[in-house]
Amino acid sequence: MSPTVLICDDSNMARKQVLRSLPESWRDNIQTATNGAEALKILRDSVIDILFLDLTMPGIDGVGVLQGMQKLKIEANVFVISADVQPEMQNKVLALGAKAFLRKPVKADVLTAQLEQHGLL
Amino acid sequence: MNTFHLTEDQQDCLQELINVAMGQASDQLARYLDTFVYLKVPSIESVNADELTKTLAEQQNTVAVVSQGFFGHEGIRGEALLIYQDEDSERIADLLGYEPDELSKDEQLIDISSILTTTFLNVFASQIDNQMSYNAPKLLPSVQKSISQHLQQMTFSWDMALKVNINYQVTDYSFNCNMILLIPETAMANIKAVIDRILEEF
Fold this sequence. Notes:
Largest sheet of chain A: 5 strands, parallel
Strand order of the largest sheet of chain A: 2-1-3-4-5
Order of helices and strands of chain A: EHEHEHEHEH
Mean pLDDT of chain A: 96
Oligomer: heterodimer
Number of strands of chain A: 5
Largest sheet of chain B: 8 strands, antiparallel
Strand content of chain B: 25-35%
Largest interface: A-B, 21 and 23 residues
Number of helices of chain B: 6
Structural class of chain A: alpha/beta
Shape of chain B: globular
Number of helices of chain A: 5
Distance between the termini of chain B: 25 Å
Shape of chain A: globular
CATH superfamily of chain B: CheC-like
Number of domains of chain B: 1
CATH architecture of chain B: 3-Layer(aba) Sandwich
Number of strands of chain B: 8
CATH class of chain B: Alpha Beta
Radius of gyration of chain B: 17 Å
Helix content of chain B: 40-55%
Radius of gyration of chain A: 13 Å
């Protein structure tokens, strides 16, 4: 069975970049969110196996989502995909439970390799 | 239709290219200042020449403008202006822990501006399969009058400018700086063509 996926990014293009890197067979189980608040609502209401998360977003940002997940004890395999490449930020999201930090713009082979590395593909 | 008019998809694509460029420019700034920089979503808008000249001339508290020209392939070129307000320039001096016998405040402002401009444009260019070269950055003297003169003396004609509003928050400090990219219509037409190419791939 294909995993349930949530893609959270305020940019339509960035969401599509992730979407087209995922296997065709996953399509029916993929949801999207355009900001942190929307993502947290979906995470509360449904079981999400894999979350692709942007950091710089209006309102609740990616760090806010990770903190919210900790508080609500929601578990998921989180891959942060961000343009904010400062080492301190990378360490921060990994400390908050993210599996990996991927640089924007994310390439399909990089994303696939990460999923394989974490036994998700 | 106006060359500077963007469809929703084009706007979204341009915004994302700018976000990525901004992220790496901030990383360079953070390394230079040896601190952490909080990023916000930069806002972008296009402004026409008359409007820009007028707005800049009216900004009484504008203390410094650093200007740097850039050139790429396929007719992509322009001038990047980094605009600082009075209080921001003071904060930058604080941040850098300026010592009187080291670099002058002006030199530091030029350094920071050049780091931001060239990193931003290098990353932007690489995403649209282009490559930039640059003129030396210069600090415009006695602001009010010199800005409008400077804008009139550009070596290329431009009718519109892309204004990217950047806000950098640096731990306890925060400073704002506006990056304004003056782009001639032909360059904008090229950028749009590349954006359309990127969008077609989806």
